[in-house]
Design brief:
Spore Coat Polysaccharide Biosynthesis Protein SpsA, Chain A; alpha/beta; 208 residues
Length: 208
């Protein structure tokens, strides 16, 4: 079982995807006038004292004050990104958040970060099953992650199957996120406005 944390997990924004369906440069696209990367950093910053950014392209994000961790295997998906962060961040555990989830609930992030179980990984159960891109991973997941990569695996959800994982039930997710917006992905241009409208309606963003 995992040793109990001596400190909160390190927050990690996963910003390595190319975002082709969104027209490229996904982290820099804006929702209600705010860049996706800034929204993700603020969400994690309300939960984790230390937040870093995982990316395959450092240059577009060079203006950020947070530490940038360059993917060891750029373009190979989120499993490779999380493996890189576990190897290079020095963190005992990480709380990851995909950059395209601008309406994630703070209470859900806190539940994942600070649960008192001894699981090596924690993820919420969404409408399509486990949500590995808003999840907690202990450093002891690293050997399993490296084995998966060596087999050519790219899907982060497979790591949840390889290690002792705890899943936050849909009922608890609904309690922590009554509005149900935590898993709203921004993948297409029209999703930017949808997220903005929902964020304004629930008070997350200022009304113009």
């Amino acid at each position: 079982m995992a040793a109990r944390l001596r400190q909160p997990p390190t927050g990690v924004v996963l910003a390595g995807g190319p975002g082709r369906r969104l027209g490229g440069d996904k982290p820099l696209r804006r929702v209600a006038g705010r860049r996706l990367i800034d929204l993700a950093l603020e969400s994690l910053g309300r939960v984790c004292p230390r937040v870093v950014v995982s990316t395959g392209r450092v240059e577009p994000l060079a203006d950020l004050p947070q530490e940038l961790i360059s993917d060891r295997w750029p373009g190979q998906g989120p499993l490779a990104a999380v493996t890189t962060v576990l190897m290079d961040s020095g963190a005992e555990a990480v709380l990851v958040l995909a950059v395209d989830l601008p309406l994630v609930a703070d209470e859900l992030l806190r539940r994942l970060a600070f649960a008192r179980d001894e699981a090596l990984a924690r993820a919420p159960l969404g409408p399509r099953g486990p949500e590995p891109l808003v999840a907690y991973y202990h450093r002891r997941c690293l050997p399993a992650a490296q084995r998966l990569l060596a087999r050519g695996e790219r899907r982060l959800r497979m790591l949840l199957k390889e290690v002792d994982s705890h899943f936050v039930s849909p009922q608890e997710v609904a309690r922590l996120d009554p509005q149900g917006y935590s898993f709203l992905n921004v993948n297409y241009p029209q999703d930017l406005e949808k997220a903005a409208e929902l964020g304004r309606a629930c008070g997350r963003f200022d009304t113009p």
